[in-house]
Design a protein that fits this description.
Layout: E1 2-6, E2 14-17, E3 27-36, H1 39-46, H2 49-54, E4 59-60, E5 64-72, E6 84-87, E7 90-91, H3 97-100, E8 111-112, E9 124-128, E10 132-134, H4 141-145, H5 147-157, E11 166-170, H6 174-185, E12 190-195, H7 198-206, E13 211-214, H8 222-229, E14 235-240, H9 245-253, E15 255-263, H10 275-280, E16 284-287, H11 295-305, E17 314-319, H12 323-331, E18 337-341
Parallel strand pairs: 11-12, 11-14, 12-13, 14-15, 15-16, 17-18
Antiparallel strand pairs: 1-2, 1-4, 3-5, 3-9, 3-18, 5-6, 6-10, 7-8
Helix pairs in contact: 5-6, 5-11, 6-7
Length: 343
């Protein structure tokens, strides 16, 4: 089968033939239809410092996908050939304290699809049945392909109650934009989002952001967002999506007392924050990683059934043979999600 592979320990990817994945009695073999390009995939393609320590070549990339079930193992129940499915890309041990308690998203031994094991940038991918999400309700294939990052947005946005709250999102990448859509849909009063890309901020406006602010210009920090929205005491909820030190510091400075921050953005290095302000303002900071299995997946499905529109987030679609062009567009970091078509 054709697959997009990190073939050797150097920059670049190769479209090549690899064997179809082997499956056991508890596994599902999936014919891939669409995949989404993630920042993780860009890191692996560039073969940066993180990729060099996290990935062992050769490796088939990809963890955002939708496909059709091609076969199921003898022990698999409630999943049938022909089902439309996506996959939870975090494979957990099932034996640690958190797994046994039903908190699988907190497993200390998580293996990432397309990072620690061969992934979905291929004609077929295999997953344990426990990692397969069957789409029981109708869903657009492009949207189904990005359930993984959509789940990151939902997990982050719904960490704290949003109804009637003023929400600040720092970072208008695709996940930040989806979080803005979720926050408005879930009943936030105002949703302000900041970034340095005018194109991405325009997408955020399309999904319902109250205010999309370019903070690269002088005098346009988060305090300006407060002023434009007429806030007197600061933001109630912060969703940090950028991993940028200046964004986190500015967010802390503009939270109301008792404000709550969910932090998904992954910093490249350690950085300082004003912990005295966090203490004296009684701000809660919670780290977010991945999705809750499978509460987040249920929430995603219900949000879409309830009319949440993520179509503006998809800004490019390519056949898998044109992967280099697709990756180049994704690497510009000026648009939304880029889709590869494997059908």
């Amino acid at each position: 089968m054709k697959a997009l592979v990190k073939l050797t320990a150097e920059p670049g990817l190769r479209l090549t033939d690899v064997p179809e994945p082997e499956t056991g009695p508890g596994d599902v073999l999936i014919k891939v239809l669409r995949t989404g390009i993630c920042g993780t995939d860009l890191h692996i393609r560039a073969w940066d410092g993180w990729a060099r320590q996290a990935v062992e070549a050769p490796r088939v990339l990809g963890h955002e996908f939708v496909g059709e079930v091609a076969s199921v193992g003898a022990d698999v129940q409630d999943i049938a050939v022909g089902d439309l499915v996506s996959g939870e890309g975090h494979l957990v041990c099932g034996k640690c304290r958190n797994c046994l308690a039903g908190r699988r998203h907190l497993c200390r031994s998580t293996v990432g699809l397309g990072v620690g094991r061969d992934g979905a940038f291929a004609e077929y991918v295999a997953l344990p049945a426990s990692n397969v999400w069957v789409h029981r309700a109708p869903v657009d294939l492009d949207i189904a392909a990005i359930f993984d990052p959509f789940g990151n947005a939902v997990h982050t946005a719904l960490t704290f109650p949003l109804v009637g709250e003023d929400v600040l999102i720092t970072g208008a990448g695709p996940i930040g934009i989806m979080a803005a859509a979720v926050a408005r849909h879930a009943g936030a009063r105002n949703v302000a989002i900041t970034d340095v890309s005018p194109d991405r901020l325009e997408i955020a406006r399309k999904v319902g952001a109250t205010l999309a602010l370019d903070v690269s210009a002088p005098g346009t920090g988060i305090a300006e967002a407060q002023r434009r929205l007429g806030l007197k005491e600061g933001f109630d909820i912060g969703l940090e999506m950028s991993g940028r030190p200046e964004a986190m510091r500015d967010m802390v400075d503009n939270m109301t007392h008792g404000g709550r921050i969910a932090m998904l953005g992954l910093p490249a290095t350690e950085f300082a924050v004003d912990w005295a302000k966090i203490v004296t303002s009684m701000i809660t900071v919670k780290g977010i990683y991945g999705r809750e299995m499978y509460e987040t997946w249920y929430a995603m499905t219900v949000l879409l059934e309830g009319g949440l529109d993520l179509a503006p987030v998809i800004t490019g679609s390519y056949g898998y043979e044109d992967f280099d062009t697709a990756f180049d567009e994704a690497a510009k970091a000026t648009g939304g999600k880029i889709i590869l078509n494997w059908a």
